[in-house]
Amino acid sequence: MKKLILSMMVAGTTLSVSAQNIDFEEYKLNNGLSVILHEDRTAPVVVTSVMYHVGAKDEQPDRTGFAHFFEHLLFEGTENIGRGDWFKLVTSNGGMNNANTSDDRTYYYEVFPSNNLELALWMESERMLHPVINQIGVDTQNEVVKEEKRLRVDNQPYGNIIKAIKESLFTKHPYRWTTIGEMEHLDAATLDEFKAFFDKFYNPNNAVLVVAGDFDRAQAKTWIKQYFGDIPKGDPIKRNTYTEDPITQPIKTTWEDPNIQLPMYAVAYRTPGMKTREARVLDMVSTLLSGGKSSRLYKKMVDDDKTALEVGAFNFSQADYSSYIIFGIPMSGSTQEQLLAGYDAEIKKLQTELISDRELQMLRNKFENQYVSSNATVEGVAHNLATYHLLYGDTNLINTEIDIYNSVTKEEIRDVARTYLNPNQRVVLDYIPAAQTASN
Questions:
Q1: Which of 263, 270, 286 is nearest to 338 (CA)?
Q2: Which end of the chain is more exposed for a tag (fewer CB within 10 A), N or C?
């Protein structure tokens, strides 16, 4: 019954954001923990989240998968929460929780009825200060991660396409490996290595705490200081900077997948990181090319020419570099050359012809809608506040980023396509069934 009530409350936490800003307060504790508070009394629900500035890019080449592994491991229990009791404690108090990891950060959150804010804060402080990291937990979660990799990657049709692209698109940057990592690296790691990884990255000065929803601000500040204020500050983290050499000639690569019967032909371009204006322009380019069945690529290659069964494009935006990816599954009888020619023809149009006023307005409307949707629940607001603070260094982008998208011009779309989406600047991936040779 509590789960049902909470689900109903969460569903009712929609905000009217199209005509108002997201109000928030941010400050720091003496130990360096960043805190962001956003009050919304629409429904009696409160979100408590912690985002740590640690992801797959902070790992070593022979110890990949650590950040994602800790996403799981830090639910094992603490000195004051018994092993296996974390989820019981959440659900028995009417809550729900989850976590996720990227190459750039790790995010934990709980959604509780608002009268359980203190419990949520205590639990997240326990995760930060008193986790139990022992061999039993490591062995248990190792098997959990292996099963996740089998289900979501290794046994999933086209499940390794991002891996196939990244390992060719990047040669120096840690983006060249996947977030989930390699299982042999986790198998080889010692307990001391896991403890050292935690000690280095899971500290208050490497994290941001967000409380969003129905709560009393003064009381929340008291509890935050009580539960987080005495957690010791960690050592400053020295992060390496990786600069990739420009791609000046096509990089051709092949990946064989035993789970597919139809090939997928993809191209990928290394593009600027998420904080740049160019990254936002490329977001709009991807929407123009493949944002639904009325988009340029779909109409041309699926509807008109019938060379592709499916086609799409997206800007995989990350902190240091992004990856602009176009992919397609050919219709029977279509070749890799035909699909690449189709991609290139639509890109060439972007590089030589300005998009229409109608298309530009359509793009602005879509991004306005995405903005409203992303901030339509307290969960979404909490996540966005943490992301803009930690990865962009500007929390108020939750209110102003839409202005950047709305200011993009037709000329910028043309110029960014000219700069970053050229045939000599990309990886060309032939992703084929394991028993089939590449068709050239």
A1: 263
A2: N
Q: Whole-prediction pTM value?
A: 0.93
Dihedral angle at the C-alpha atoms of 150, 151, 153, 155, nearest 10 degrees?
Answer: 80
Please give the Cα distance from 398 to 381 (Å, whole number): 8
Given a contact cutoff of 8 angstroms between Cβ atoms, the answer to whether 46 and 115 are in contact is no
Contact 259, 156 (CB under 8 A): yes
Question: For residue 438, what is the DSSP state?
Answer: P
CB within 8 Å of 114: residues ≥ 6 apart: 44, 45, 46, 213, 214, 215
- Phi/psi of residue 196, nearest 5 degrees: -65, -40
Task: Identify the residue whose tokens are 């090939």.
Answer: 263
Per-residue pLDDT of the chain (440 residues; tens, 9 = 90+): 333 334 434 443 434 334 469 999 999 999 999 999 999 999 999 999 999 999 999 999 999 999 999 999 999 999 999 999 999 999 999 999 999 999 999 999 999 999 999 999 999 999 999 999 999 999 999 999 999 999 999 999 999 999 999 999 999 999 999 999 999 999 999 999 999 999 999 999 999 999 999 999 999 999 999 999 999 999 999 999 999 999 999 999 999 999 999 999 999 999 999 999 999 999 999 999 997 888 899 999 999 999 999 999 999 999 999 999 999 999 999 999 999 999 999 999 999 999 999 999 999 999 999 999 999 999 999 999 999 999 999 999 999 999 999 999 999 999 999 999 999 999 999 999 997 544 44
